Amino acid sequence: MRLDFFPSRSLTVYLARLFITRILAVLVMLVLILQMLDLLSESGNILGYPGNGEAQLWTYVSLRIPQLIARFLPYSVLLATIITLATLNQNSEVISMKAAGMSAHQILAPLVLTALVISIASFAFNERVVTRATATLNVWEKQKYGPMPKTSDVRANVYLRDGDNILMAVQLSGRDAAMRMEDVTWYRRNADGNILQQVRAPSATYVGPGWRLDNPRSFDVQSAAEKPIAPLVVAPQLTPQRVALTGVDADGENVVQLRQSIDRLEASGRNTGELQAAWWHKFSGPLSAVLMPLLGAVAAFGLARSGQLFFRAVTGMALGFAYFVVDNAAIAMGNFGGYPPLLAAWAPFLLFLFVGETVLIRTEE
């Protein structure tokens, strides 16, 4: 067996190009089919909001496609691995490479390298595009596909308590002193929880301390009278740091923002196990593409004319899908506190790395 990890340069480029074209083809096919099905199910809700039309449908598609790409890219790598290796096996190219003295690991090396590059690109795509699209789409869905948020750094339907009083906002954007609320309602209540006054305002800004309601209208419960009032400052105890602790969306924040949210929650004594598992999974999730050539490697070897090629392809596909099942189960267990966050995010990856290596070594090396 040769000691070089990679085959010749020309063969490496050939296998990598073959692999990447199939990944892109499978990914485009999956995303187009799933996007059409998803749009069919959501188009009624989007067009149900007064004033929405074709432009809003295209906006929804532009926000949904990044999520579909991020979710199904590892599946595309798995299916492309099966297609590529099965084709090479059926055309006797694998036999030719092994006859030239190449090991199974050398045959798979260009595919693993390509998958590693895809994992890095997937991580960057998730951090720069998917998180922003997810945050915007989540807010837009909670607003029943009403007016689009102006920025991607937003949260919807924020509910805050200030002693006996309640401050609610349909939309919250910005961070720290630049935080801003839209469509705000403030309820002044007595110690028994009864509402004494309701104040509505189109927006609220932090003035330190408190939040200034711009152009507010007050409704007095006792007199049942509504009237405009002067700008009002409410909730002096609600600082931007305290507001930031509510409703953290792990999918809508990148690794830096999520790490900052976790640190703030830990400083306030909150449980952050679920968010920490999600933070670690932002690294292990994209890296799962590296496992797919190893788990699907069984489709590359064995004689095609022996009748075992289909069985080997199904076995490789089963190993790949088993990883996704175990990975989702581990994250769910981590969210419930059954596993430590680090173990929940990385245990499936390491487990199937050993499984794939064991299968490859015992059957081919």
UniProtKB/TrEMBL annotation:
Q: Which InterPro entries match?
A: LptG (IPR030923), LptG/LptF_permease (IPR005495)
One BP term from GO: transmembrane transport
Q: Where in the cell is the protein located?
A: Cell membrane
Question: Where is the chain membrane-spanning?
Answer: 12-37, 68-86, 107-125, 283-302, 309-326, 338-361
Q: Which Pfam families match?
A: LptF_LptG
Q: What keyword terms does UniProt attach to this protein?
A: Cell membrane, Membrane, Transmembrane, Transmembrane helix
Asked if the Swiss-Prot or TrEMBL record annotates the protein with the keyword Transmembrane helix, the reply is yes
- Identify the main location: membrane
Membrane topology summary:
Multi-pass membrane protein
Q: Does the keyword Transcription apply?
A: no
Q: Which GO terms describe its cellular component?
A: ATP-binding cassette (ABC) transporter complex
What this protein is called in its record is Putative permease
Tell me the classification of the organism that encodes this protein: Bacteria, Pseudomonadati, Pseudomonadota, Alphaproteobacteria, Sphingomonadales
